[in-house]
Amino acid sequence: MDLRRCGIHTRAVHAGERAERPRFTPVSTPIYPSVGYLYDEMADLDAVFAGSQPGYVYPRYGSPTVAALEAAVATLEGGAEAVATASGMAAIHLVLVSEGVGPGQRVVAAQDVYGATYALLGDLFRALGAEVHFVDACDLEAVRATVRRTAPRLVLVETISNPLLKVADLPALATIAHEAGAALAVDSSFASPYLVRPLEWGADYVIHSATKYLSGHGDVMAGVVVAGEERCQAMRERQKLVGGNLGPMEAWLALRGLKTLPLRMRQHLANALEVARWLAAQPGVARVHYPGLPEHPQHAIARRLFRPGHYGGMISFELAGAGREEVFRFMEALQLCLPATTLGDVYSLVLYPAMSSHRALTAEERARIGVGDGLVRLSVGIEEAADIIADLDQALGVGRET
Ligand SMILES: Cc1ncc(COP(=O)(O)O)c(C=O)c1O
Q1: Looking at the whole model, is its pTM more than 0.85?
Q2: Counting atoms of ligand 1 from 1, which one is nearest the CA of 113?
Q3: Ligand 1 centre from 156 Cα, in Å?
Q4: Which residues of 116-152 are buried (b: 16+ CB within 10 A; e: fewer)?
Q5: With bands split at pLDDT 50, 70 and 90, how would you rate the model's confidence at 297?
């Protein structure tokens, strides 16, 4: 149709669109915000709907920029496929729903999973009628006993826990889950596939808050689940119904960030080891939690499962004799490390668990699980290690002076 002969409304809607059918290939995947997709023949659209032909029909069913991110993360994790979501929490929710965790069904989860995951299971899924059992994931006998007793659909753990950085024995947990017919889902947001690939250790799902290391620049919220073909297909079917899909702009940002994941991780991990060793030698620091230190309770597991010589970019440490006031003073004195409520960015970031992730717990409850009032979590960035250490040193000095 000759648009120039059409009315202004028609011209405004169609002019400039679809002028070119690409005969070129962009080097990096473009952002496809389009909600609809056209095919020359209706039979092709029908076949795409039926799943017998690849293609796109509507973003809740999948879209090209998101698919590029999914393919990239699946490749990095060594999985068959991946499904991207609007956030890490949406990814966890999708796994639970897709595995059939619902009324009368059981799920066993690590007791120190991320706070929102704990609430999702303990509040929302319990209210929906699911039976939720929290266990210490490092106590394999306790996990085995709970899994045998409850026969859950799913066992959910984190590779590295927050904020005490306990390392899960993934192959042992996979065996325990599989013996009872349960699937093992591993939230590996703190580790990234650079450090460890949980599918290779027997996990059935790997979950990421891609908001963290995968994207890495503190400018996008995203989630992703990597699993086998069948499980991904089941998740896509759920996603068609419940939404929670990732948008194309966010997918593009995450995909862009992902390209430098190994480079960033190399620097995060080298910096973290240096900073952890330095912190451990400071009189103002009572204790350092870092899987790379020989005294860490799961150091041997980390050595076995993680990339040789690498232990993650997250550190927690206890300021000696400190409470809320002293920690606030320390955090306010930092000039390079930013007190922001996230992790895994290029920037070094500090967080006070007693005020944020573990705020809902009483001081006694926090003390019982080892999250004392002097505990600070540090997400070590990719700056120079010496500069991070200098900043920590001067802030510890402020604490010493007062
Ligand atoms: C281990 C872990 N899993 C999941 C999430 C949730 O991710 P998002 O904030 O992208 O929803 C977080 C967020 O901090 C996290 O730390």
Answers
A1: yes
A2: 1
A3: 14
A4: ebbebbeeebeeeebebbbbbbbebeebbebbeebeb
A5: very high
